Amino acid sequence: MGSSSSSYAPRTIYLDVDGKVQKVLFSRHCSPCDIRELLCSSSKIPRNTAIMVVDPEGAMVSIDPTMPLNTPNSLYKVVPLSTAQLGEREEMFQSVFSQVAEQFTRAFQINELKTEVTSRLLVLEKRVELEGLKAVEIEKCKNDLKRLRDEMDSRSARVNCPCKYSFSDDGRKLTPRRDVPSYPKYTLSRETIEALKKPTFDVWHWEHNEMLSCMEYMYHDLGLVKEFNMNPITLKRWLLAIQENYRNNPFHNFRHCFCVSQMMYGMIHLCNLKGNLTLTDIGILMTAAVCHDLDHPGYNNAYQINARTELAVRYNDISPLENHHCAVAFQILSLPECNIFANVDPEAFKEMRQAIITLILATDMAKHGDILESFKHKVDHFDFANNEHVSCLKMVLIKCCDISNEVRPAEVAEPWVDCLLEEYFMQSDREKSEGLPVAPFMDRDKVTKPTAQIGFIKFVLIPMFETVMRLFPQIEEIMVQPLRDSRDHYEELKQIDDALSEGSSFMTKFRRLEKT
Ligand code: LUO
Ligand code: ZN
User: Fold this and answer.
1) In the list 25, 68, 183, 395, which could disulfide-bond 362, CB 3.0-4.6 Å?
2) Pocket-testing residue among 460, 483, 489, 490, ligand 1, by greatest number of atoms within 8 A of Cβ
3) 79, 56: one domain
């Protein structure tokens, strides 16, 4: 099973080192510091030397993962920054620091002045109220106030701090007006944020980067970024690495990952799981959902085992796909720049890792009967303080989310059946060509959308969701009822199919009779 390489394709630049061409490779996930060290060692310059890179025309080249690439015919040169240049830079920093210090001093003086004005105003108001001052004194006080205000305005005009605030009358800071250009950030609308919590969310409407933004929002909204003290940039890099490690299969692709994650996010809200589970459990549920089908090859365990693929051999035919999804998930988390749990206590992380592995392995449908049976024996006396109960619930929750397409509105769910059958037919065609066993529900000559869905909805989905409903009755209306409606819809379709096929077979017999 080839590894997915394109996502980490290294970047290459060429240096002129003592007149020779020196090729340098680095991953786009390297930090500028890593690249600087690499350039120093490639140019035989001591590691911590301050350097700059110049192109053949002498222009400075930025040192970061997205630096412009060159060719062996246009070599870059790594130049140690001279002490003079360092001195210049140091001087520049010094002058910037002293200017900023001066601004703050002035700003502080203004604040002092404001306090003085405010307290004098209070005294004057008190005097006016208590002693009924003569008009001339009031006039004098007004002049005093005007002079103080002019002095304050003239001083604030001289403070050019980058963020100018507009003050309300009582001196409260209103919205900061930034003089720095505001970069175009991807922001989710209020409407999208609200829709994201519901199973009716239209998962087909979004491109990959929009789904990534939704997933990033989920982690923030659930309080996971705060709870695990995640670096927000690391979260972005992690999500990008996740997306890059889902293949473009017809069904098991990044959009399926998004569906499962978004459905999990929806169930967390609908079942009020934050009220019964810890934030660690919520993090485990979300992260397992995001990672659960990583690098899926598009061919299921039956194919892996029958074809004796590298995965089947590596994992001894024991849930080869699900073990692979786990392995890829933690390979990504082992990259420092993608490790969203870098700030989690190592012992706590070990427990989280074990729990995430348990949930991803639970998505192997071969275990469906055992897991649901185990949950059925707990659900009517469920104890959220019992770790076995909670672990079993989490397994059922990720299973529900993994196969939940038919919970969604028909126009959102139906395309997924086409995607699934396309992937299944790809496999069964290959199995036929390789002389391997073919599952009937994958055989393009035997299965139709109604037959693929009726049995699955009646004997897999509804029984499982109705069991979960015994613990969370609130899922009946917006999760179980759509399943019943979809079952009825596909049964009607099947009746039409049957009538049409009976009609056509009648016509075939009739034509035969006509010929005799
Ligand atoms: C259940 C399943 C297994 C692997 C890949 C996808 C699916 N999913 C579905 N299968 N996920 C969602 C759906 C869905 O809406 N319908 C179906 N229908 C049939 C064709 C199916 O694959 N059923 C099935 C497959 C495996 C299994 O246990 C091993 C039980 C039912
Ligand atoms: Zn899945």
Assistant:
1) 395
2) 460
3) yes
| Ligand with smallest separation from the Cα of 322 | 2
Is 516 a member of any domain?
A: no
Give nearest CA residue, ligand 1 atom 8: 403
Q: Which residues are catalytic?
A: 252
Same domain, 135 and 80: no
| Nearest ligand to residue 399 Cα | 2
**Per-residue pLDDT tens digits for 358-370:** 999 999 999 999 9
Domain annotation covers residue 446: no
How far is C-alpha 81 from the chain's CA centre?
Answer: 40
Is residue 199 domain-shared with residue 342, that is, in the same domain?
yes
Query: 73 and 151, same structural domain?
Result: no
pTM value surpassing 0.90: no
**Residue 31 confidence (pLDDT):** 81
Q: State how far the alpha carbon of 221 is from the alpha carbons of 9, 36, 186, 215, 274, in Å.
A: 33, 36, 16, 10, 12
Number of separate domains in the chain: 3
The pLDDT tens digits of the residues spanning 175-218 come to: 333 332 232 346 899 999 999 999 999 999 999 999 999 999 99
Name the token pair of 450. 């109604």
Cβ < 6 Å from ligand 1: which residues? 300, 365-366, 368, 403, 405-406, 420, 441, 452-453, 456, 460
- Domain membership of residue 281 (yes or no) is yes
**Domain span at residue 136?**
99-160
How many Å separate Cα 55 from the centre of its chain? Answer: 37
Nearest-CA residue for ligand 1 atom 10 is 456
In a domain, residue 456? The reply is no
Ligand 2 center from residue 363 Cα (angstroms): 7
Please check whether residues 302 and 249 belong to one and the same domain: yes
Report, as an integer, the average pLDDT of 348-353.
98
Q: Report whether 234 contacts 283 (CB < 8 A).
A: no
Query: Which residue's alpha carbon is at the smallest distance from atom 31 of ligand 1?
Result: 456
Q: Taken in order 46, 48, 54, 58, is the CA torsion positive or negative?
A: negative
